[in-house]
Amino acid sequence: xxxxVAFVVVAWWQVPWAPVRGGSPPPVxxxxxxxxxxxxxxxxxxxxxxxxxxxxxxxSLAVACWLGFTWSGGQLVTRVRGPWPWRVLVxxxxxxxxxRAATLPVAAAGQQLRLDAGLSTQSWPAWxxxxxxxxxxxxxxxxxxxxxxxxxxxxxxxxxxxxxxVVVAVLVMLGSFVYPVLVEPLTNDFRALPDGELRxxxxxxxxxxxxxxxxxxxxxxxxxxxxxxxYVSGFGSTRRVVLYDTLxxxxxxxxxxxxxxxxxxxxxxxxxxxGSVLGALACAGGVGLLxxxxxxxxxxxxxxxxxxxxxxxxxxxxxxxxxASPAQSTISRLVETRADVExxxxxxxxxxxxxxxxxxxxxxxxxxxxxxxxxLWFGSHPTxxxxxxxxxxxxxxxxxx
Length: 401
Ligand SMILES: [Zn+2]
What we know:
mainly alpha
């Protein structure tokens, strides 16, 4: 209850519920930004990308539910022997491998689609290695979290949800903090943006936005993708602004500064920290809910002190993840809209902003007008037609929004 209440309070206080002063403008027509051929190509690609990602999601949910909610799935884990932490690890690996194997064909179909569209630059072995690294990272993270929950349940037969909620929330914060220094280097190399005109201009934008920036890094994203992007990760001493190398050098300088100003707006508002706190509180609430769902029965698939509970918890987490997705995506879109509004206000270059949005869409083949429920559920950013509309309102209307 405390986790859920704290989530609502932090969300109410820190999420920019009205990121555009005077309300979000109506989206522009896609035809006013892209040519007919560009729209057709983006829609064709996005349609198939949605087919593969949703099929993958449906399969992984089905596997998780089979393992967690059925007798035959439960039988699989009863054969694992050994000390309880070892059994947690083995069962997490088994569930992870089964889920990965079941979704491998659609993951490969998605990769083939990206190769065909010219979005991916990866060889199949490099792609497979990425999947393996991703699986390893998730096995480590999930084993730690579930090990903590089960450990608490073994130690405190009645009070475990309260203790485990705090422990899991701390683990989420810790994970988000170390992610840029522990996990990101597993799949990418980073170098500091070299001294020069771009770096000087970026520091000037940072100064204008009032964000102290120590670290602007360039990642070797081009070994994986032709798309352009940038992001902020970590908080406190691990916070960094990362630019894709595909962005630096080949994109117009003004447009790069628009991207940087957007990322610096995230940094200024500590969006990663707020997102991590919200995630930690949601997980704490989730542990409490788990305590209610599992009850206090001993033995078998619902005993929180037994490693046999792992598939049940994973299934509940998978279902909760899908159900929580619209809330998560909606908060993300609001935060992204605020970063766009501030980028426009700082750079005062609406034409470059629009050109950048056009370039992003052409390069990523993102659907300029995705189906409403797809956008509600999975849209982390406003759509192209919504973002371009932001550039068309006058700066006085949006300043300070
Ligand atoms: Zn952003």
